[in-house]
From TrEMBL:
InterPro entries, per database record: Glycosyltransferase_28, UDP_glucos_trans
Stored PANTHER family: STEROL 3-BETA-GLUCOSYLTRANSFERASE, STEROL 3-BETA-GLUCOSYLTRANSFERASE UGT80A2
Protein name, as recorded: Glycosyltransferase family 1 protein
SUPFAM superfamilies for this protein: UDP-Glycosyltransferase/glycogen phosphorylase
Length: 512
């Protein structure tokens, strides 16, 4: 039975591979470049995706004064652009970022319009995969036709006005992608995503199906033999759902009728002349046999515009009082009260048992009181537990102080690579989709712990506290720190934001 299943899946995998390869090798028109040494970056304002672009832009304006830099996005990151521009002037007095603000909803606005970001929280395995398979078409078709057309036209107008040598894109902002594609402009993508999530589909011998854990699967690497059929089924299920999605098909047809000839292109990343600048790097992930030539590996793209004490002398002074655990579950996550209660109980247990202090980034999902803090209330009063709704200091700048002992995060790309580059242990609390792969990756690399696997995405206070203490000073702590520092060193060797900025500047120099 097993052999028969493998044969069937191998045949289906081959058919999918042929389909993808045929799409990837279609003849494409030669891309059009605009004014020499001019760059336009077009992104959504979701920090989970655009932080990598912001980090690149910061190095671009600091180190490449001959490049004229334009940035188009939503109001949500206007202050980030201003902060980066002002900080860059300390290095390059002529630094300037030309800002173009979109009118209309961002992708986060569209998510909020149909529900809550909390609805994205899903378990690993088939139920989580089914939810993720529904999410992906949404993210590719998030905007109404009217909003999509408006953002598309705004991007077209900006491209035609600026006439950049290269357009740098965000894979979440489909209207911007459509504009660059339909104008046939020279372009590139910057992505925070893991290499395995981007290129496993083109690995030799159908490795996508039997070698690499599927997104949202929660399976470890290497995949145990008994779980290979499950992984094959889940990978094939997702591909078929993606390729046959009525939402994508209908959105494409509707937009084509309204004047966008190449709308919602599914195979843009397979163009050999369209580079993808990736901050994921081989040493910080599962081993890959093949990385396409259009992928440029630059290492972690992290924002670090100024030393932590410059950004917030008060917060920096506080973290220097004792080794600090940072609890930061990303820019999108909000705590419902039951989760806040569990986290507070875990934090109280850790503070009971140690002399460390904890910086907890906490944003509530809705209005509720502070009763959830009762287990840890005395530590707030003593000053050993600090709650912030937002961090005014770039996480990398905090890590660079050397005072953060452990990073507790959700397994988002930015949090994962920021922690990897810092060379400190992680406790990963995955909440959806690719988070589960990052949690497994942290354990595979020996740099982190994923507690509560059996209850994910829900938590138990005792298991959280145990993981916090283990990462801090347990039997595995020393080995995790050694592994983390070795992987961090490799990450620094790639060049990060400076290499990404150099690649963008080189593309800009190819203009007319």
């Amino acid at each position: 039975m097993f052999r028969r299943a493998v044969v069937v899946f191998a045949i289906l995998a081959a058919l999918v591979g042929v389909f993808l390869a045929r799409q990837a090798t279609q003849d494409d028109e030669v891309l059009i470049s605009g004014r020499n040494n001019t760059v336009l970056i077009v992104t959504d304002s979701h920090h989970g995706m655009c932080n990598a672009h912001l980090a690149t832009v910061s190095a671009l304006v600091e180190n490449h004064p001959s490049v004229e830099v334009h940035y188009a996005s939503f109001s949500g990151i206007a202050s980030d652009i201003e902060r980066i521009s002002e900080s860059a002037k300390a290095v390059n007095p002529e630094a300037k970022i030309h800002w173009h603000q979109f009118e209309g909803p961002s992708i986060v606005d569209e998510i909020k319009a149909i529900g809550s970001l909390l609805e994205i929280v899903t378990p690993p395995g088939m139920s989580g995969l089914k939810a993720f398979a529904k999410m992906v078409p949404f993210f590719m078709t998030a905007w109404s036709d009217e909003a999509h057309l408006s953002l598309y036209q705004q991007t077209v107008d900006i491209i035609q006005k600026v006439d950049p040598a290269v357009v740098i894109l965000d894979s979440l902002l489909r209207p911007g992608i459509d504009a660059a594609v339909n104008l046939n402009r020279t372009r590139a993508y910057i992505t925070p995503n893991a290499l395995v999530d981007l290129v496993s589909a083109v690995q030799p011998r159908g490795g996508h199906f039997w070698k690499y854990p599927g997104i949202a699967s929660g399976l470890p690497f290497p995949i145990p033999w008994k779980d290979i059929p499950t992984n094959m089924y889940q990978q094939l299920y997702f591909i078929i759902k993606f390729l046959t999605s009525p939402a994508i098909k209908n959105k494409r047809s509707s937009l084509q009728e309204k004047g966008i000839p190449q709308a919602v292109n599914l195979f843009e990343m397979y163009r050999k002349d369209v580079p993808w600048i990736a901050m994921s790097y081989p040493e910080a992930g599962y081993p890959l046999e093949y990385i396409p030539d259009n992928f440029r590996i630059v290492g972690p793209l992290v924002l670090d515009v100024a030393p932590a004490e410059t950004q917030s002398a008060e917060l920096t002074g506080w973290i220097k009082k004792a080794p600090t655990i940072l609890v930061n579950l990303g820019s999108a996550f909000r705590y419902e009260e039951p989760r806040a209660v569990v986290m507070a109980e875990a934090i109280a247990a850790v503070l009971d048992a140690t002399d460390v202090q904890i910086l907890w980034k906490l944003r509530k999902a809705h209005k509720y009181g502070d009763d959830f803090l009762e287990p840890a209330k005395k530590y707030v009063e003593e000053g050993r537990l600090r709650l912030e709704t937002w961090l005014d200091v770039d996480p990398t700048s905090l890590y660079n102080t050397g005072d953060i002992a452990v990073s507790v995060h959700h397994g988002g790309a930015n949090c994962f690579y920021e922690t990897v580059l810092a060379g400190i242990p992680s406790v990963v609390l995955p909440l959806w989709a690719d988070h589960y792969n990052y949690a497994q990756t942290a354990e595979y690399l020996g740099v982190g712990i994923w507690p509560n696997k059996k209850t994910a995405p829900d938590w138990e206070a005792a298991a959280l506290a145990e993981a916090f203490l283990e990462a801090l000073s347990g039997n595995k702590s020393t080995t995790m720190r050694q592994n983390a520092k070795a992987i961090a060193q490799k990450g620094h060797e790639y060049g990060g934001r400076k290499l990404a900025a150099q690649l963008v500047a080189e593309m800009a120099a190819g203009g007319k």
